[in-house]
Design brief:
By secondary structure, the chain is of the alpha+beta class. It contains eleven helices and 16 strands. Keywords: Cytoplasm, Guanine-nucleotide releasing factor, SH3 domain.
């Protein structure tokens, strides 16, 4: 059976699976996981969907493995069941204007995709309105429970997203050709609003903070009752708040696949072809930026754990300025004034280069020896021969030089190819810093403190850290609300006794950084 159309999502998809049909999805991106209950796969893998009762996380199978995976990482195409053109000759039908339309032709397929885009946009607008009016408005009435800072942490800039999406869907509606939908020109709408989609970066960057804050608040049942009452009063579907807040992250990543599907059924001579092509490229860039940010934010725990494993660490934490390990390897450091040579392990992060000494007996143990501030440094490629400053013979060497201070670091690799890899890595470091400045990427104080706290706890106990699965993956059922009370009175329920959580799972120890 071919993969199902995305139109069967929801109850239709669940029914197909329960009826024994094989439902497949294609992976859009790699899903790398260290949780034994999650399913890892590569982009392009075909996954059999076995359970879709949760809208955000599905249970599936690929190769010999089974597990949870985020629904936003896969695609269920709009038109999956079309036979090859050569083997299919359906009957033609007349359109209202006297033209001829072949069911299943590219015109009809393009109509299907366009209607799907409009339908999902209308649903998304309702979803955003429910969050803003159902949750945020009610939370602002309870200053005793929520500060403005807390609301900003939980909901991010979702109100800004709501305003932008309303303007976007109005533009789509104006471009929709009701008489002949396949002639609609939607590509221009995406191009006109592509700058607005950049605000999703801020939302996605904040989303881990929202999960942490919600996890903290919902340890108190009065908040659980409050959020559930908000949902009931707004007559929203049966999904907890963390599930609702995940939707914008999923939505921005689904635009490229919708546009790819639209381009597939847009002939080159169509007036919309060039705009759809350009829009697909633009939205891929937005989605790529967001996925890269997600990867880097997930990586900060590893950086914190690596720092905690280094003996004799001095100075500020790595995460104060850095968030990415770019390259690592062994170099010879030549120091002044005696031109003394030292073998050191170097770790190049954005903004700084850390160097450590290996333990003589335990080669896996590192001792902190210093750092080099990469901002403002010049990388000088040196020729083999006699160094002018130190008057010694050098080979496979380069210098890190700071003109304002006169600070200089002479480093030598063992082989020419190792030197070239270091020079390329140093160039990547500067490019990474430039991109971060352009896109506004940074780690919040809350994220940094949480990562260091987790690392220090693990270091103190010497045991593998017990991590919870992602907060939104725990498919918690809503607490049963007393039916004898009006919904409005649920807001003031007293806090019940806290029950022990059953959603904690242990995973294997995180691997340390490798060269």
């Amino acid at each position: 059976m071919p993969p199902v159309s995305s139109k069967v999502l929801g109850q239709g998809l669940i029914k197909l699976i329960s009826d024994g049909s094989v439902v497949c999805a294609e992976a859009l991106w790699d899903h790398i996981t260290m949780d034994d209950q999650e399913l890892g796969f590569k982009a392009g893998d075909v996954i059999e969907v076995m359970d879709a009762t949760n809208r955000e996380w599905w249970w599936g199978r690929v190769a010999d493995g089974e597990g949870w995976f985020p629904a936003s990482f896969v695609r269920l195409r709009v038109n999956q069941d079309e036979p090859p053109d050569e083997a299919w000759r359906p009957l033609a039908t007349k359109t209202q204007d006297g033209g001829v339309e072949v069911p299943g032709s590219k015109e009809q397929m393009r109509t299907n995709v366009i209607k799907e885009i409009l339908s999902t946009e209308r649903d998304y607008i309702k979803h955003l309105r429910d969050i803003c009016e159902g949750y945020i408005r009610q939370c602002r009435k309870r200053a005793d429970m929520f500060s403005e800072e807390q609301l900003r942490t939980i909901f991010g800039n979702i109100e800004d997203i709501y305003r932008c999406q309303k303007a976007f869907v109005r533009a789509l509606e104006r471009k929709f050709n009701r008489e002949r939908p396949h002639l609609s020109e939607l590509g221009a709408c995406f191009l006109e609003h592509q700058a607005d989609f950049q605000i999703y970066s801020e939302y996605c960057n904040n989303h881990p903070n929202a999960c942490l804050e919600l996890a903290r608040l919902t340890k108190l049942n009065k908040y659980v009752y409050f959020f559930e009452a908000c949902r009931l009063l707004q007559k929203m579907i049966d999904i907890s708040l963390d599930g609702f807040l995940l939707t914008p992250v999923q939505k921005i990543c689904k635009y490229p696949l919708q546009l790819a599907e639209l381009l597939k059924y847009t002939p080159p001579q169509h007036r919309d072809f060039k705009d759809v092509e350009a829009a697909l490229h633009a939205m891929k860039n937005v989605a790529q930026l967001i996925n890269e940010r997600k990867r880097r934010l997930e990586n900060i725990d590893k950086i914190a754990q690596w720092q905690s494993s280094i003996e004799d660490w001095e100075g500020e934490d790595l995460l104060v300025r850095s968030s990415e390990l770019i390259y690592a390897g062994e170099l010879t450091r030549v120091t002044q004034p005696q031109a003394k040579s030292q073998q050191r392990m170097f770790f190049l992060f954005d903004h700084q280069l850390i160097f450590c000494k290996k333990d003589l007996l335990r080669r896996d143990m590192l001792y902190y020896k210093g750092r080099v501030d990469m901002d403002g440094l010049e990388v000088v490629d040196l020729e083999d021969g006699k160094d002018r400053e130190l008057h010694i013979s050098i080979k496979n060497a380069f210098r890190l030089h700071c003109s304002p201070t006169g600070e200089s670091h002479l480093l030598c690799a063992r082989k020419p190819e190792q030197k070239q890899r270091w020079l390329k890595a140093l160039a990547r470091e500067r490019e990474q810093v430039r991109l971060d400045q352009e896109t506004g990427f940074s780690i919040t104080e809350l994220q940094r403190k949480q990562a260091m706290l987790n690392a220090n706890k693990q270091q103190a106990t010497g045991k593998p850290k017990a991590l919870s699965r992602p907060y939104y993956l725990a498919r918690q059922k809503h607490l049963a609300l007393p039916t004898s009370l009006p919904q409005q009175q649920v807001f003031v329920l007293a806090e019940p006794k806290r029950k022990q959580s059953t959603f904690w799972h242990s995973i294997s120890r995180l691997a340390p950084f490798r060269k």
